[in-house]
Structure formats: structure tokens, C-alpha cells
Amino acid sequence: MRKSLVALLLMAAGSLAQAEVQLKDGHPQAYTVVRGDTLWDISGKFLRQPWKWPEIWQANPQVQNPNLIYPGDVLNLVYVDGQPRIVLNRGESRGTIKLSPNVRSTPLAESIPTIPLEKINSFLLSNRILDSDVEFSQAPYVVAGNAERVISGAGDRLYARGDFVHGGEGQVYGIFRQGKAYTDPQTGEVLGINADDIGTGEVVAEEGDIATLALSRTTQEVRLGDRLLPTEERSISSTFMPSEPASQIDGVILDVPRGVTQIGQLDVVTLNKGRRDGLEEGNVLAVYKTGETVRDRITGESVKIPDERSGLLMVFRTYDKLSYGLVLNATRSLSVLDKVRNP
């Protein structure tokens, strides 16, 4: 992790120090960090609302470089001017620095992250949302496989046709298949098109509008008609700071890109709200299980059961009209069209 976790927490705490937070019933007075913890897990041991962690965090001034939380660190709950605070206490082994002519380093992988990023990193690197199907219809497409094969895999050559304006030989393209078109269930507006990742190929020869590509990676068989899009440069946050949205959010879960029907903890979901609605990476939303409509056997009327709060998710990737979220916890099985609102 390249970013300073505690430094970010301290910056956030400066403006929120006086805010009131609710401690969780049965919270510990002290907690020793262990390998495998995340900051989200730890904050959930102390707080009813884990995303408010920065509001009670402060580092022990005796710790010279409180840049990261490590296994073995002790977090103590104290009160300052009547307000709860979590203080980082670092043991003797970490508080004493022995000078040496040799370079000493601590692997960054041992530090405690905010959110388990390994759950979403592979998803971030491959999935893509397009604003409309125009990009698909205008993109180069696979016209043939080597020896006139109709399907190809990693290590094969394939041939594509189209306007290869990006680079030439050596240019890397992602290979995609058009997936679901997302439509807002309330307004009917087309929000975007899901591009299913199929693989990656590098241009090794080009003549006219035909290019030869060497397939370096595939997630499934490449078929005739699959489209080629230039690789997308993406900055992947190494630290997500959970926070409340700055504006009112009233949306729904549109899809589960990984193809499951029942949604649980650490599943990735697609939301019908995005940057234009005020969502940012790190925003936390409550998930409400949509109440069913049942028949009242006494009156004969159809009545709707109230929506029930059933989980919490964090937005980790935003587009203009859509977002991806990671389900942080769920008290029951969630599903498509369940509602998401401010926590």
C-alpha cells in the first residue's frame, strides 16, 4: 500500500473531531491488531457506524511515524473532553529504533488496509462500462482466427478488421463482448452498456484495415465478432476512505456483474447512480431489502411489506451514470432491485 493510511485518517479527523459518534454495544476497551484485520473490521468492533472511524481516531504523539497500522499495535478507547477517542499505542519493539549502517525495511503488505482490496482488484482491471453501444459498433472486430478457426485462446493468432487508429504494431487491445444494457428502472433512461472482458491481444502486423494480433490472455474463448478497444489507463486507489455521500442518494442495485443471483458479503454490484448524482469512491450506502407485495386475506387487498435495512456497501468505482459497489455486510440475502440509500 503506497498511500499513508493514518495520515489520511488524521486529516479527516481534524474537521470532524467534535462530531458525535455512537459506540457499539459491548465494544472493547482495547484491541490488539492481528494479521488479516482490515480497518473496516476493527472500526466495526468499536462503532455502530464504522465509516465514522476518522472522527474518533488520534495517534499517540510519542509514535514518531504513525503512518500505518501493523499487527501487534494496540488500539485503546479513551475519552477526551467527554468524547470517545481511539489512541494508537505502539509497543516497545516498534517504539525503539536501532541505528544500523544497513537498510531496514518493513514490507508494506503487512500493514492493515481499510478494505480488503484483493476482493475487487481483479474486477477493476478487466470490467468496463460504455456510455452507449455506438463505441461497440464502431470498434474493430475479430474477423477470423488462425487457420480459419471460429474460436481462439491464449497463445493463438487472430485477425481483426477496423480502424486501428491507436498505435499500430505493439499496440495492446482489450477484447470485449457486448453485455447487458443498463436502463434506469424508474425513468427508462439508458445508463450504460456493460463490456464483458474476453482477453487481451497485441498487434504484431497490420495491412490496410486488417491487423494480426497475438492473444496474451483470455477469460473465455474469443469468437468472431468480438470487439477490440484500446486498453484503458485506470488509477486504482490503494486506500479507500469510507464516507457518507455528500448528497441524498435513492437508488437500486441493477446487476451483479459476476453472474450470481443471490448477493452476499464481498459481492460486487452495479448501482443506477454515479458521479452526476454525487457519488464518489469510498461512499457508503445502506441496502434495503425491497418488501414483497402480499394479499391481505381479511380485506382482499394487496399490501406491500415495508422495506428492511439488510446490509451496507461501499462504492469503489464511479462512472457518470453508474457505479460499482462492494457489499461490506449483509444480514440476509440481497437481490437485484433492492434499494440503496444514505446510511
Protein architecture, described:
It is built from five helices and 21 strands. By secondary structure, it is mostly beta strands. The protein has three domains: 5-114, no CATH class; 123-230, Beta Barrel (Elongation Factor Tu (Ef-tu), domain 3), CATH 2.40.30; 250-341, FlgT, C-terminal domain (Thrombin, subunit H), CATH 2.40.10.410. Strands 5, 6, 8, 9, 10, 11 and 13 form a seven-stranded antiparallel β-sheet that branches. It has a six-stranded antiparallel β-barrel with strand order 14-15-20-19-16-21. It is globular and about 75 Å long. The protein starts with a helix and ends with a strand.
Form type: globular
Total strands? 21
Alpha-carbon distance between the two ends: 28 Å
Integer-rounded radius of gyration: 25 Å
Give the amount of beta strand, in percent: 35-45%
Q: Helix-strand pattern, N to C? A: HEHEEEHHEHEEEEEEEEEEEEEEEE
**Can you count the helices?**
5
What structural class do the secondary elements suggest?
Answer: mainly beta
Low-confidence stretches: 1-19, 92-109
